[in-house]
Amino acid sequence: MSTKPNFTESKYIVVLIFVTSLFLMWGVSMTLGDTLNKHFQNVLHISKFRSAYVQLSIFGAYAVMGIPAGLFMKRFGYKNGVLMGLAFYALGAFLFVPAANAESFAFFRIALFILACGMATLETVAHPFVAALGDQRTSDQRINFAQAFNGVGGVIGPFVGSFILQSGLEHSNDLIAVKHLYIIIGCVVAAVALMFSFVKIPAITDSHVVAEDAYAVAGVEDADVSLFKQKHFLFAVVAQLFNVAAQGGTWAFFINYGSEVMHFTDSHSARFFSFSMVMMMIGRFAGTALMRFIKPYKLLSIFAAGNIIMCIIVAQGFGWPSFVALLFINFFFSIMFPTIFSLGLKDLGPKTQQASSFIVMGVVGGGVFPLLMGLIANHNVATAYYMPIICYVVIFLFGFLYPRLNRKVTA
């Protein structure tokens, strides 16, 4: 008789806590980058379209680092992959100092790109790492749990960013606050890397490679089948691309929406952005709990349908009803990234790490989509929110069709 799988095992708890902290760290940097969008518009006097190159720099790094990070992880292991990611992260943060001194948008984009190479490496490593810390049947729950702390970081990022925006209003050419903030971030990341280098990693039998349940065994038996013949994996890459595209566009112009539709100050809008990250964090904890009763792919479709409705309301520019809907986009968005990631990795056996690299590369959608939304937002920021509907339709279809894409899954 099969028993209900545990969330994780006691020997993995310390490692799980440490790896979960990585999710918080890149949550801070991701949302802080969206806050910098508006700050660069104010201080460096650039358009909404050009400020969207911030997202291109961040998400473009994912396309560059996805495969190299996966190959590095496969050759040198999870721990060394984490350390490499933290090294890039810290280096990029410290490069903000000369970028701020030069008051150069191009230099800032280089610093952001290097920092994001670290974020991309951490994401490539951390997701399969967390998935491996226990039974494959509970990997969805572990990844969503870890991603909930990404939401905590998402709250911290715009909250801190609101002080940068306030500084930008008081001193029109002030990049000092940005410089000081990233010095602190660089020091914290370097300290975390040093501590993690001393953490002993227990022997891990990757639950995606060798597992006791029938689905995982089938995955090992199909090890010789090309990764690109796995329909659920291919659709996961596409769904993740559109998912992060929607995220990048929604977050990039949140503060502009608050300023132009609600007539808030930039710092006030940034605080609401921080609150929207609280909504995302609540959504992830709620989603983790709901997945014990609702299959992850079904919940994914439900949440995608919710965001289609929210985007329609936001695009009307109705004032508070539309702004509340904008806040709720993050609630429904909450489970999408980790759930798509986990569903895409199911039953791939020894190809799991390679698949993780490709799914991370799908994140490049977040670099392209804000540019397209920026062209519309230059004329009407509310109307620009019709565009993410396309993305949520793709995500809905991924969840709805998942049992047919992955025949090992029962409806």
UniProtKB/TrEMBL annotation:
It is found in: Cell inner membrane. Coiled coil: none annotated. The keyword Lipid biosynthesis does not apply. Its main location: membrane. It is a multi-pass membrane protein. Gene3D superfamilies: MFS general substrate transporter like domains (1.20.1250.20). Keywords: Cell membrane, Membrane, Transmembrane, Transmembrane helix. This is MFS transporter, FHS family, L-fucose permease. It comes from Mucilaginibacter pineti. The lineage of its organism: Bacteria, Pseudomonadati, Bacteroidota, Sphingobacteriia, Sphingobacteriales.
